[in-house]
Structure prediction request, 374 residues.
Amino acid sequence: MKQPFEQIVQAYGLSVLRVCRALLDEHRAQDAWSETFLSALKAYPGLDPQANIQAWLIRIAHHKAIDELRRHRGETVQADPAAGEVAVELSPETNAENHELWALVKQLPEKQRLVVAYRYLGGLGYRQISEFLGGTPEAARRAAADGINSLRKVIDISAYEGASP
Amino acid sequence: MKKKETTAVATAAEAALLSELRQRLEDSAQLEQLTDVVYRVVDSPLGKLLLASTGQGIVRVAFEGEEHDKVLERLSDKVGSRILRSEAKLDAAARQIHEYFNGTRRTFELPLDLRLSTDFRRRVQLELDRIGYGQTLSYAQMADRIGNPKAVRAVGSACATNPLPILLPCHRVLRTDGSLGGYLGGLEAKRQLLLLEHAQAVPAEQHLF
Prediction:
Protein backbone atom coordinates (compact mmCIF):
# COMPACT_ATOMS: atom_id res chain seq x y z
CA MET A 1 0.00 0.00 0.00
CA LYS A 2 1.32 3.45 -0.93
CA GLN A 3 0.34 6.42 1.15
CA PRO A 4 -1.46 9.19 -0.76
CA PHE A 5 1.08 11.66 -2.15
CA GLU A 6 -0.44 14.53 -0.16
CA GLN A 7 0.83 12.82 3.01
CA ILE A 8 4.33 12.73 1.51
CA VAL A 9 4.21 16.48 0.93
CA GLN A 10 2.99 17.06 4.49
CA ALA A 11 5.54 14.73 6.08
CA TYR A 12 8.67 15.68 4.12
CA GLY A 13 8.02 19.15 2.70
CA LEU A 14 9.77 20.86 5.58
CA SER A 15 13.04 18.94 5.57
CA VAL A 16 13.31 19.23 1.78
CA LEU A 17 12.73 22.98 2.10
CA ARG A 18 15.44 23.30 4.74
CA VAL A 19 17.91 21.34 2.65
CA CYS A 20 17.17 23.46 -0.43
CA ARG A 21 17.56 26.65 1.59
CA ALA A 22 20.90 25.55 3.00
CA LEU A 23 22.25 24.99 -0.51
CA LEU A 24 20.68 27.72 -2.63
CA ASP A 25 19.54 31.30 -2.37
CA GLU A 26 15.90 31.86 -1.46
CA HIS A 27 14.45 32.15 -4.95
CA ARG A 28 16.29 29.14 -6.33
CA ALA A 29 15.61 27.15 -3.17
CA GLN A 30 11.88 27.56 -3.75
CA ASP A 31 12.24 26.53 -7.39
CA ALA A 32 14.25 23.49 -6.35
CA TRP A 33 11.55 22.51 -3.82
CA SER A 34 8.84 22.80 -6.50
CA GLU A 35 10.83 20.82 -9.06
CA THR A 36 11.67 18.16 -6.48
CA PHE A 37 8.05 17.50 -5.54
CA LEU A 38 6.79 17.70 -9.11
CA SER A 39 9.40 15.12 -10.21
CA ALA A 40 8.58 13.00 -7.17
CA LEU A 41 4.85 13.12 -7.99
CA LYS A 42 5.58 11.92 -11.53
CA ALA A 43 7.82 9.09 -10.35
CA TYR A 44 5.79 8.10 -7.27
CA PRO A 45 3.70 5.29 -8.81
CA GLY A 46 6.90 3.50 -9.85
CA LEU A 47 8.65 3.88 -6.50
CA ASP A 48 9.41 0.67 -4.61
CA PRO A 49 6.86 0.58 -1.74
CA GLN A 50 9.71 -0.38 0.63
CA ALA A 51 11.87 2.60 -0.38
CA ASN A 52 13.03 5.13 2.20
CA ILE A 53 11.00 8.14 1.10
CA GLN A 54 13.11 10.70 2.92
CA ALA A 55 16.29 9.49 1.18
CA TRP A 56 14.49 9.30 -2.17
CA LEU A 57 13.28 12.91 -1.90
CA ILE A 58 16.63 14.28 -0.71
CA ARG A 59 18.32 12.53 -3.62
CA ILE A 60 15.93 14.21 -6.08
CA ALA A 61 16.45 17.56 -4.31
CA HIS A 62 20.21 17.01 -4.52
CA HIS A 63 20.07 16.63 -8.30
CA LYS A 64 17.90 19.72 -8.63
CA ALA A 65 20.23 21.72 -6.38
CA ILE A 66 23.34 20.57 -8.23
CA ASP A 67 21.71 21.55 -11.54
CA GLU A 68 21.03 24.99 -10.14
CA LEU A 69 24.54 25.41 -8.75
CA ARG A 70 26.18 24.29 -11.98
CA ARG A 71 23.94 26.48 -14.10
CA HIS A 72 24.68 29.61 -12.13
CA ARG A 73 28.19 29.27 -10.82
CA GLY A 74 30.16 26.46 -12.37
CA GLU A 75 31.63 25.55 -9.02
CA THR A 76 33.78 22.48 -8.66
CA VAL A 77 33.42 19.91 -5.96
CA GLN A 78 36.36 20.16 -3.59
CA ALA A 79 38.48 17.21 -2.64
CA ASP A 80 38.20 16.05 0.94
CA PRO A 81 40.66 17.88 3.18
CA ALA A 82 42.26 16.07 6.11
CA ALA A 83 39.91 14.07 8.24
CA GLY A 84 38.61 15.59 11.44
CA GLU A 85 36.63 14.21 14.31
CA VAL A 86 33.20 15.35 15.28
CA ALA A 87 31.82 14.06 18.51
CA VAL A 88 28.62 16.04 18.51
CA GLU A 89 25.38 15.72 16.63
CA LEU A 90 23.54 18.86 15.66
CA SER A 91 19.81 18.64 16.04
CA PRO A 92 17.80 19.69 12.96
CA GLU A 93 15.12 21.29 15.13
CA THR A 94 17.36 23.90 16.70
CA ASN A 95 19.65 24.51 13.76
CA ALA A 96 17.17 25.12 11.02
CA GLU A 97 15.83 28.12 12.81
CA ASN A 98 19.21 29.76 12.89
CA HIS A 99 19.67 31.73 9.73
CA GLU A 100 23.12 32.94 10.70
CA LEU A 101 24.35 29.39 10.98
CA TRP A 102 22.88 28.32 7.65
CA ALA A 103 24.25 31.39 5.89
CA LEU A 104 27.66 30.19 7.02
CA VAL A 105 26.95 26.65 5.88
CA LYS A 106 26.36 28.08 2.43
CA GLN A 107 29.95 29.34 2.42
CA LEU A 108 31.49 25.94 3.08
CA PRO A 109 33.15 24.10 0.19
CA GLU A 110 30.49 22.38 -1.85
CA LYS A 111 30.92 18.82 -0.70
CA GLN A 112 30.98 19.80 2.98
CA ARG A 113 27.95 21.97 2.49
CA LEU A 114 25.99 19.17 0.80
CA VAL A 115 26.89 16.57 3.38
CA VAL A 116 26.20 18.86 6.34
CA ALA A 117 22.80 19.77 4.86
CA TYR A 118 21.78 16.19 4.06
CA ARG A 119 23.03 14.92 7.41
CA TYR A 120 21.75 17.60 9.76
CA LEU A 121 18.72 18.96 7.90
CA GLY A 122 17.78 16.00 5.74
CA GLY A 123 18.39 13.53 8.55
CA LEU A 124 20.13 11.02 6.29
CA GLY A 125 22.89 8.61 7.28
CA TYR A 126 26.34 8.82 5.68
CA ARG A 127 25.76 5.60 3.78
CA GLN A 128 22.57 7.00 2.20
CA ILE A 129 24.34 10.25 1.38
CA SER A 130 27.28 8.52 -0.29
CA GLU A 131 24.88 6.47 -2.41
CA PHE A 132 23.95 9.51 -4.47
CA LEU A 133 26.85 11.84 -3.73
CA GLY A 134 29.51 9.32 -4.71
CA GLY A 135 32.55 8.35 -2.63
CA THR A 136 32.44 6.28 0.53
CA PRO A 137 30.31 6.74 3.66
CA GLU A 138 33.57 7.41 5.51
CA ALA A 139 34.48 10.23 3.12
CA ALA A 140 31.01 11.74 3.61
CA ARG A 141 31.47 11.52 7.36
CA ARG A 142 34.84 13.26 7.11
CA ALA A 143 33.42 16.02 4.92
CA ALA A 144 30.69 16.64 7.50
CA ALA A 145 33.28 16.69 10.28
CA ASP A 146 35.43 19.18 8.39
CA GLY A 147 32.41 21.33 7.69
CA ILE A 148 31.42 21.36 11.34
CA ASN A 149 34.99 22.18 12.37
CA SER A 150 35.09 25.11 9.95
CA LEU A 151 31.83 26.38 11.39
CA ARG A 152 33.27 26.09 14.88
CA LYS A 153 36.13 28.40 13.92
CA VAL A 154 33.81 31.24 12.96
CA ILE A 155 31.00 30.95 15.45
CA ASP A 156 30.24 29.27 18.70
CA ILE A 157 27.91 26.51 17.59
CA SER A 158 27.71 24.84 20.97
CA ALA A 159 24.37 26.50 21.56
CA TYR A 160 22.93 24.63 18.59
CA GLU A 161 24.37 21.25 19.33
CA GLY A 162 21.87 18.64 20.36
CA ALA A 163 22.43 15.40 22.18
CA SER A 164 24.95 12.86 20.96
CA PRO A 165 23.53 9.85 19.12
CA MET B 1 19.22 0.17 8.80
CA LYS B 2 16.41 2.49 9.68
CA LYS B 3 17.13 6.10 10.49
CA LYS B 4 15.43 7.85 13.32
CA GLU B 5 12.60 10.02 11.92
CA THR B 6 13.21 13.74 12.05
CA THR B 7 10.34 15.36 13.87
CA ALA B 8 11.24 18.96 13.18
CA VAL B 9 8.50 21.53 13.64
CA ALA B 10 8.06 24.31 11.10
CA THR B 11 8.39 27.92 12.18
CA ALA B 12 5.46 30.18 11.30
CA ALA B 13 7.38 31.61 8.32
CA GLU B 14 8.29 28.14 7.08
CA ALA B 15 4.70 26.96 7.45
CA ALA B 16 3.43 29.94 5.42
CA LEU B 17 5.98 29.33 2.67
CA LEU B 18 5.25 25.60 2.60
CA SER B 19 1.56 26.26 2.17
CA GLU B 20 2.33 28.56 -0.76
CA LEU B 21 4.71 26.00 -2.31
CA ARG B 22 2.12 23.25 -1.84
CA GLN B 23 -0.44 25.35 -3.69
CA ARG B 24 2.05 25.87 -6.54
CA LEU B 25 2.62 22.12 -6.67
CA GLU B 26 -1.14 21.53 -6.85
CA ASP B 27 -1.44 24.03 -9.71
CA SER B 28 1.44 22.49 -11.70
CA ALA B 29 0.06 19.00 -11.11
CA GLN B 30 -3.34 20.08 -12.45
CA LEU B 31 -1.77 21.73 -15.46
CA GLU B 32 0.17 18.59 -16.33
CA GLN B 33 -2.71 16.29 -15.32
CA LEU B 34 -0.52 14.38 -12.92
CA THR B 35 -3.05 13.46 -10.24
CA ASP B 36 -5.08 10.27 -9.95
CA VAL B 37 -7.38 11.70 -7.29
CA VAL B 38 -7.96 15.13 -5.77
CA TYR B 39 -9.90 15.62 -2.55
CA ARG B 40 -11.29 18.16 -0.18
CA VAL B 41 -13.03 18.06 3.19
CA VAL B 42 -16.22 20.10 3.72
CA ASP B 43 -18.29 20.79 6.83
CA SER B 44 -21.88 19.59 6.91
CA PRO B 45 -24.62 19.11 9.52
CA LEU B 46 -23.58 15.44 9.45
CA GLY B 47 -19.96 16.24 10.29
CA LYS B 48 -16.99 16.55 7.98
CA LEU B 49 -17.45 15.03 4.54
CA LEU B 50 -14.58 13.93 2.34
CA LEU B 51 -15.14 14.61 -1.37
CA ALA B 52 -12.78 12.88 -3.79
CA SER B 53 -12.67 13.16 -7.55
CA THR B 54 -10.85 11.58 -10.49
CA GLY B 55 -10.51 13.20 -13.90
CA GLN B 56 -13.87 11.64 -14.74
CA GLY B 57 -15.97 12.73 -11.81
CA ILE B 58 -16.67 12.41 -8.11
CA VAL B 59 -15.45 8.98 -7.07
CA ARG B 60 -16.09 9.03 -3.32
CA VAL B 61 -18.04 10.85 -0.64
CA ALA B 62 -17.09 9.68 2.84
CA PHE B 63 -18.46 10.36 6.30
CA GLU B 64 -16.18 11.27 9.18
CA GLY B 65 -16.91 7.95 10.86
CA GLU B 66 -15.32 6.09 7.96
CA GLU B 67 -12.01 7.79 8.85
CA HIS B 68 -10.92 9.95 5.95
CA ASP B 69 -7.27 8.84 6.13
CA LYS B 70 -8.31 5.24 5.65
CA VAL B 71 -10.63 6.14 2.79
CA LEU B 72 -7.76 7.99 1.07
CA GLU B 73 -5.47 5.00 1.56
CA ARG B 74 -8.04 2.73 -0.09
CA LEU B 75 -8.32 5.20 -2.98
CA SER B 76 -4.54 5.15 -3.27
CA ASP B 77 -4.72 1.37 -3.57
CA LYS B 78 -7.67 1.15 -5.94
CA VAL B 79 -7.36 4.27 -8.10
CA GLY B 80 -3.79 5.56 -7.77
CA SER B 81 -1.36 7.02 -5.26
CA ARG B 82 -0.94 10.41 -6.89
CA ILE B 83 -3.46 12.01 -4.56
CA LEU B 84 -3.44 15.71 -3.72
CA ARG B 85 -5.76 17.95 -1.78
CA SER B 86 -7.49 20.54 -3.98
CA GLU B 87 -10.01 23.11 -2.91
CA ALA B 88 -10.53 24.48 -6.41
CA LYS B 89 -11.16 21.19 -8.21
CA LEU B 90 -13.97 20.33 -5.80
CA ASP B 91 -15.54 23.74 -5.71
CA ALA B 92 -18.70 22.77 -7.60
CA ALA B 93 -19.22 19.65 -5.49
CA ALA B 94 -18.68 21.54 -2.24
CA ARG B 95 -21.12 24.27 -3.29
CA GLN B 96 -23.84 21.84 -4.35
CA ILE B 97 -23.56 19.84 -1.13
CA HIS B 98 -23.78 23.07 0.84
CA GLU B 99 -26.89 24.07 -1.11
CA TYR B 100 -28.42 20.65 -0.56
CA PHE B 101 -28.05 20.97 3.21
CA ASN B 102 -29.43 24.50 3.02
CA GLY B 103 -32.53 23.08 1.39
CA THR B 104 -31.99 25.10 -1.80
CA ARG B 105 -30.93 22.16 -3.97
CA ARG B 106 -32.84 18.96 -4.72
CA THR B 107 -30.73 17.31 -7.39
CA PHE B 108 -27.02 17.25 -8.02
CA GLU B 109 -25.40 18.14 -11.30
CA LEU B 110 -21.97 16.61 -11.01
CA PRO B 111 -20.05 14.12 -13.14
CA LEU B 112 -19.79 10.84 -11.21
CA ASP B 113 -17.21 8.07 -11.42
CA LEU B 114 -18.51 4.70 -10.18
CA ARG B 115 -15.32 2.76 -10.91
CA LEU B 116 -15.19 1.53 -7.31
CA SER B 117 -18.39 -0.49 -7.77
CA THR B 118 -18.94 -3.82 -9.50
CA ASP B 119 -21.32 -3.91 -12.49
CA PHE B 120 -24.33 -5.09 -10.51
CA ARG B 121 -23.82 -2.61 -7.70
CA ARG B 122 -23.24 0.18 -10.19
CA ARG B 123 -26.60 -0.62 -11.79
CA VAL B 124 -28.35 -0.39 -8.41
CA GLN B 125 -26.47 2.76 -7.42
CA LEU B 126 -27.36 4.52 -10.66
CA GLU B 127 -30.98 3.54 -10.12
CA LEU B 128 -30.86 5.38 -6.78
CA ASP B 129 -30.54 8.59 -8.75
CA ARG B 130 -34.10 8.09 -10.01
CA ILE B 131 -35.68 8.15 -6.57
CA GLY B 132 -36.93 11.71 -6.27
CA TYR B 133 -36.12 14.14 -3.49
CA GLY B 134 -38.23 13.39 -0.40
CA GLN B 135 -39.42 10.02 -1.74
CA THR B 136 -38.56 6.63 -0.37
CA LEU B 137 -38.53 3.09 -1.74
CA SER B 138 -38.05 -0.28 -0.10
CA TYR B 139 -35.15 -2.57 -0.89
CA ALA B 140 -37.69 -4.93 -2.51
CA GLN B 141 -39.03 -2.14 -4.73
CA MET B 142 -35.48 -1.32 -5.77
CA ALA B 143 -34.92 -4.97 -6.69
CA ASP B 144 -38.07 -4.79 -8.83
CA ARG B 145 -36.85 -1.64 -10.50
CA ILE B 146 -33.63 -3.20 -11.67
CA GLY B 147 -35.63 -6.16 -12.99
CA ASN B 148 -34.34 -8.63 -10.46
CA PRO B 149 -37.01 -8.95 -7.75
CA LYS B 150 -35.22 -11.78 -5.97
CA ALA B 151 -32.05 -9.77 -5.45
CA VAL B 152 -33.32 -7.89 -2.38
CA ARG B 153 -30.29 -8.79 -0.29
CA ALA B 154 -27.85 -7.89 -3.09
CA VAL B 155 -29.65 -4.57 -3.50
CA GLY B 156 -29.14 -4.01 0.21
CA SER B 157 -25.39 -4.62 -0.19
CA ALA B 158 -25.24 -2.32 -3.19
CA CYS B 159 -26.83 0.45 -1.12
CA ALA B 160 -24.56 -0.28 1.83
CA THR B 161 -21.47 0.03 -0.36
CA ASN B 162 -22.58 3.13 -2.25
CA PRO B 163 -19.33 5.10 -2.73
CA LEU B 164 -21.30 8.29 -3.32
CA PRO B 165 -23.76 8.71 -0.44
CA ILE B 166 -25.89 11.89 -0.50
CA LEU B 167 -25.11 12.36 -4.24
CA LEU B 168 -26.69 8.99 -5.02
CA PRO B 169 -29.42 8.91 -2.39
CA CYS B 170 -29.19 5.49 -0.78
CA HIS B 171 -30.71 7.15 2.28
CA ARG B 172 -34.04 7.05 0.40
CA VAL B 173 -34.16 3.26 0.49
CA LEU B 174 -35.83 1.74 3.57
CA ARG B 175 -36.96 -1.65 4.75
CA THR B 176 -40.38 -2.83 3.61
CA ASP B 177 -41.75 -2.23 7.13
CA GLY B 178 -40.59 1.37 6.93
CA SER B 179 -37.67 0.98 9.32
CA LEU B 180 -34.39 2.53 8.32
CA GLY B 181 -32.29 -0.48 7.41
CA GLY B 182 -28.63 0.48 7.44
CA TYR B 183 -26.47 3.43 6.54
CA LEU B 184 -22.74 3.88 6.21
CA GLY B 185 -22.90 7.27 7.88
CA GLY B 186 -24.94 5.86 10.77
CA LEU B 187 -28.69 5.63 11.14
CA GLU B 188 -28.93 9.07 12.71
CA ALA B 189 -27.41 10.55 9.54
CA LYS B 190 -29.92 8.67 7.40
CA ARG B 191 -32.75 9.94 9.57
CA GLN B 192 -31.49 13.52 9.36
CA LEU B 193 -31.28 13.39 5.57
CA LEU B 194 -34.84 12.12 5.33
CA LEU B 195 -36.03 14.84 7.71
CA LEU B 196 -34.19 17.47 5.68
CA GLU B 197 -36.04 16.30 2.59
CA HIS B 198 -39.35 16.16 4.50
CA ALA B 199 -39.70 12.59 3.31
CA GLN B 200 -43.29 11.32 3.56
CA ALA B 201 -42.40 8.21 5.49
CA VAL B 202 -39.75 9.31 7.92
CA PRO B 203 -39.63 6.33 10.25
CA ALA B 204 -40.43 7.08 13.84
CA GLU B 205 -37.68 7.13 16.42
CA GLN B 206 -38.50 3.69 17.82
CA HIS B 207 -37.58 2.03 14.54
CA LEU B 208 -34.02 3.00 15.19
CA PHE B 209 -33.68 0.44 17.93
Observations:
- Confidence is low (pLDDT under 50) at residues 74-89 of chain A.
- Residues 92-160 of chain A form a domain with the Arc Repressor Mutant, subunit A fold (CATH 1.10.10.10).
